[in-house]
Amino acid sequence: MKSITNGKILVFFGIIHPLLGISPFAFGEQFAGFAGQFFFKISEGLFEFPLLNGQMQYDNFAACWFFYFGILLIPLGLLVHYVEKTTGNLPKNFVWTYLIVVLIGVYMIPFSGMTFLMLPHAIYMLVQQRKLTIKTHS
């Protein structure tokens, strides 16, 4: 039986995130506007930066980062899956770093997938790591 690895869970999150992002329930309106421009020049870049007397388009900014965060999770998940399959466990530093990044996300956006999906996953990874540590030292 093939097991579900932490890497597969991250890949799943990575696929769901952009799909939710382009849906009408999240940033569908922004992505419809981006598609109207063939996804070219969806922002003014640094010219939107307030320090340069620009006006940020926060909805577009949030839509892009929401979409790309999911895209970034896919290769991370593939890498985590590879490491788990070849070594049998994940490095302790990775697990703690992942937990810290997730906790920052939970703090910044408490009512989100970071809180309801990724935090339990990070805690699960930490528990898994501790069990492996105890098992190898016994």
Which key features would you list for this structure?
mainly alpha; 2 domains; elongated
Estimated radius of gyration:
18 Å
Largest sheet: none
Backbone structural class: mainly alpha
Binned strand content: under 5%
Estimate nothing, just give the exact number of structural domains: 2
Strand segment tally: 0
The 3D shape can be described as elongated
What is the number of helices?
5
Average pLDDT number: 88
Question: How helical, in percent, are the residues?
Answer: over 70%
Uncertain segments: none
Distance between the termini: 27 Å
H/E topology pattern: HHHHH
Topology:
Elements: H1 6-22, H2 28-36, H3 58-87, H4 92-108, H5 113-137
Helix pairs in contact: 1-3, 4-5
Structure description:
- This protein has two domains: 1-88, no CATH class; 89-138.
- Helix content is 71%, strand content 0%.
- The two termini are 27 Å apart.
- It has 138 residues and is mainly α.
- Helix 1 (6-22) runs antiparallel to helix 3 (58-87) and helix 4 (92-108) runs antiparallel to helix 5 (113-137).
- It has helices at residues 6-22, 28-36, 58-87, 92-108, 113-137.
Give a short synopsis of this structure.
The protein has 138 residues and is an all-alpha fold.
